[in-house]
Amino acid sequence: MPINVNGPSTNALGTNKPQKNDAAEQATVAKSGNGTNHASREDVVELSDRGRVLEAVVSKVHQMPDTDQAKIDRIRSAITNGEYKIDYDKLAAAFSRFEAGL
């Protein structure tokens, strides 16, 4: 959900008041470092290296299919042909790991 940082703000009492954006006030705030800095069209957000890597990973994940259709087809074919073998020890270990995580 986008946030309008340049729109009207609500003060602590919940009333909307127009903000003063005159150049003298902004220059005073910038020089003194006091008060709240107002957002401008020149504000820039830069992601850290970690943020860029995470963004790339998320993008790749969203491009991946939800299922591996080739694997599904191989298993389906093996079941149909009676060739699908179940490793009961491996299955039991997987159940045990799952239950331990609950």
Report a brief summary of the structure.
The chain is mostly helical.
Question: What would your notes on this structure say?
Answer:
Strands 1-2 form a two-stranded antiparallel sheet. Helices cover 49% and strands 4% of the residues. It has a domain at 66-102. The longest helix is centred in the middle third of the chain and has 15 residues, at 49-63. With 102 residues, it is mainly α. The protein contains four helices and two strands; from the N terminus they run ββαααα.
Radius of gyration: 29 Å
| Main β-sheet description | 2 strands, antiparallel
Percentage of residues assigned to helices? 40-55%
- Would you tell me the overall average pLDDT? 77
Task: Provide the β-strand percentage band.
Answer: under 5%
In whole angstroms, the N-to-C terminal distance is: 33 Å
Q: Largest beta sheet: what is the strand line-up? A: 1-2
Number of helices: 4
Overall body shape: elongated
Structural class: mainly alpha
Keywords: Bacterial flagellum biogenesis, Cell projection, Cilium, Flagellum, Repressor, Transcription, Transcription regulation
Family: Belongs to the FlgM family.
Protein name: Negative regulator of flagellin synthesis
InterPro entries: Anti-sigma-28_factor_FlgM_sf, FlgM, FlgM_C
